[in-house]
Fold these 4 entries.
Entry 1:
Amino acid sequence: MEIVNKVAQSKLITIDLEEWYPSENRITIDLKDILFQGLILREKDLREYVASTNFEFCKDSLVNIICSADAVVPTWAYMLLSLHIQPFAKRIFFGTTEQFDTLMFEEIIAKLDVSNYHDGKIIIKGCGKLPIPTSAYVALTNKLLPLAKSIMYGEPCSTVPLYKKK
């Protein structure tokens, strides 16, 4: 008796968000490291930092700027730092890595051509190795909903049915 792989023969379309995960080097620059006594940002200290730092290490990288300390940091400080990073970085973002991932995936999904998913039986792959934000799964589901015949989550051998067109 021949063993038939029915999953491989089915017309299921698997979408793996990990395939769209940015592959560029990622760098976080935390202003807490230059705060006076860990609490106060002094303009002089920041200007010395940006003047003495070779931001070549940011070359072709995705850079997010944060201040993880509980300190009041004026907006201009982030702006000044980004101006010095700009000649090197591929992209600069203010916020956490998680917030950056959310923004990147929102942009990727907004630009995604979903016309070839019309009447498709779609599996949105989960349980990967990379930290895909939940918001990306929600955005993709909402974008596919008007077109898909069905939407499932998981792996082809073990899916959770989410939607089936009536």
Entry 2:
Amino acid sequence: MTAPITIVIPTCGAGFHLMSVLQGLVDQTNRDFEVIVVDNNPCARLSSPTLQHEDLRAAVVHEPRNGLTHARNAGVASARGSCVAFLDDDAVPTSTWIESLVEGLRHYGSAAVGGSVELTLPHDAPPWLGAAERALLSELLYSGRDIPVLGDDLYIVGANMCITREAFTKVGLFSPRFGRTAKSLRSSEELEFTRRLQAAGERVSFVASARVHHHIDALRLTKRYFTSRAYWQGRSDALLEATWGRPASFGHRDWGANLKALCGRLRDLAVEDTATARIRRRFALAREYGYCLQVALLRFRLPSFSP
């Protein structure tokens, strides 16, 4: 027996919010789905009985190979649905989440859709947490409006997306080259996947009403975390552009432009005289440095020191 939609939830470590995510699925207005939780720990930590609710049964798949990409791909391999929706283990869906995703796929004739991701913070946000920093935590709202066809300068995020079975058949699974691991904060695997879809002539859309609340732990609200996150995002940006090209709206980049941009970031940091802005400048510099470093590694075919 198949379900119209399979929901895949990768989890690693303690998964403090996982039961809240499952409760969010219990409360869905559309109940025609199956749930697969992918245990991405080296040794299995979860079992199906521990995740059972009187109104919800979640199957558990163990994927010992470390990395978010491996976990998502394992969920797709076990899915029986005609489309596969993805949640992070700290992204709690609103009650109409599934209904909105399914309607978005139908209404826009898309191969993949993503939805709104709104941050839920454990305490007052630090003063330096601006829009760019919130985006690094996967916040995605697009002013609350649907986008029927995403251009190459827009994206959806893996904490809230739904992809048809035919899409995976057509372009393959997620690429481990872009996926996050326990030792690096590489990202953009979903963006690279949707680029393949778009290159194959398929439509990718954003559905604002498909909303999740992304719970952010205090450890991810530190300057150290954001410096690392920004650095790895820069490296991911460069990898993506090496594969699919730079969006035209971003402007052309060559070696001279890269050096100029990096020096500009250094100058901005040096002359900034307010603490909040200086911290944001540091993050921007880390991202620029990661980008330029990855470009150099690719250009000179140097071995990457990433895990």
Entry 3:
Amino acid sequence: MSRNAWVGARAEKQLAIGGGQPPTCERMFTGIIEETGAVEGIRAKAGSIAMTVRAGLSWRELKKGASVAVNGCCLTVVQITRRGSFSFLQFDLLRETWRRTNLQFAQPGSLINLERPLRSDGSLGGHFVTGHIDGLGHITRLVRKGQDRLLEIAAGPQVMPYIVLKGSVAVDGVSLTVAGVQRKGFSVWIIPHTWRSTALRKCEEGAAVNLEADLLGKYVEKFVAARN
């Protein structure tokens, strides 16, 4: 079985069993990726997975205990090492988080989307992203149309009720606009700047992606359910 087929099969299995929430994160993000880091190493620990990500100079001011959206998943920095022009950020992932996100497919050298939390005086360039992954999707089609890319993603019932045409969705932590909605999936357009600036440029058909639906839709559902 090819790697694409294997990843696609794993994603299908995740869609079937439903999504889940990583540990609670009290920070908010915007889906505007600051940098693509690279996975430096992954190792199993008692009850968790340690993942180290290599980032650039812009992360020198980051402190231990800070929250970072890693492929859209809110994680806590447990250790920081500086070497030359790089910062090495270590995260401890609970095995539940590992199983519920596409970080389980990461390998040394894999590109990872990184974003720090939104500051209270910051600019909201994308949309409100919590860092809680709703579920895994998988890429069913990726085509280039002119300078842009069209990405079609299959998603499960834990995500699709909140996908709205022209609404927002975070794909691997990237804030994107929904371009089309089908019964079991949706499509998004990726402009050249987003393609160059995020790890999506390394995605391929069959790959798993982290999905977080728009927070507003979840609140509306909750309010309507309470009134009924």
Entry 4:
Amino acid sequence: MSKIKFQGNASGTGTTTFQSANTSSNTTFTLPGTDGTNGQVLTTDGSGNLTFGAAGGSGTVTTVSVVSANGLAGSVANASTTPAITLTTSITGVLKGNGTAISAATAGTDYVAPSGALGTPSSGTLSSCTVDGTNKVGYIGAPQSTNTTVAASDAGKHIYFTGGSTATLTVNTNSTTAIDVGTVILVVNNNSGNLTISGAGVTFQLANGATGNRTVATKGMATMLKVATDTWYVSGAGVT
């Protein structure tokens, strides 16, 4: 502990010298005020120089600088300002922390980046979502389609023909219209005549029957299941 020594002549007159027992470094002494609180602060600089100053009181810290460390540099302002923290270090994207430092995170290493934007639950469309990492999310039901040529968007739907006589449902090869193996499509023929399911280069296998174009009689319904690149199994009431 540093000490202050008061030296003067025997009569108590002359110059008073303050000497710190620790002269090798700065030393601060707080002298009590008349009301018992901290009054003055006496500081030595290790070279015999003494400085009086007022003791610390109340006040407001407006800005504190943040040194360039732990991945960030900038300033911290008091809570009454907006923003409370201003950074001068440029870090974009998702940030990561390791307990002592902050840095930019790497997609694919620190987090899985989404392949596309997700819509809002009330109106957005989720595409390429799966239930198990492979199989796409399906419908609860079979929404209606009126396509006369099968599209990839018809997966899980029923294609409805009505109000006409004969009609044809065309199925393109996978090289023309890519449709996942395992896709199921229902075909409902509410026309007054037969409906033909056909497509050049595509095999239509009648369940427990021959291959070739399929015919769905009026008021009949067919289930189409894609089992290979250009092969569909077809079955149902009124299907030949």
